[in-house]
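The authors assume throughout that readers already know how a fold can be written as discrete tokens. For illustration, here is how one protein appears when written out as sequence plus structure tokens:
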Amino acid sequence: MEDALDPDLVNVLLRQALLIGGLVAILNVGIMSIFASVAFRILGIAQDWVERGSTGVRFLVLAAVCVVWVQFAATCCVWVWAALYMHLDLFTDFEEALYFSAVTFTTLGYGDVLLEEGWRLIAGIEAMNGLLMFGFFTAILIELIRRMRRNFDSNKHHWF
């Protein structure tokens, strides 16, 4: 049977996990905000291109670009968490850290890879961060598509 960690050490690790996890979550919120700002800028620049066309294909292309952009943002956030796990020596293999991070960030949580005692709380913080990120970017995507469609419809363009 494996020896349990000293309760005082576990308390120290929990405090560290809360602090470090909170700071990384804040960093990821900053990353998400930058990606959202760039997405709105891209929309502003591409709006003329969409309006010049007479079909909805350009609208759909721009919407697809926004979806890929959001997916890239989520991937960046997952990599930040994986890098943290490697920095804390919680994993010896980056692929395993990245896998754990992706499964945790998306709140899939297979449970086949776990953090060691004292650091488990950080996985919950990552899951909350991922859940909020997906909600945030869902709202951003809906707003981007709403704006594109409003501008497209107001200019009397045909969809196809």
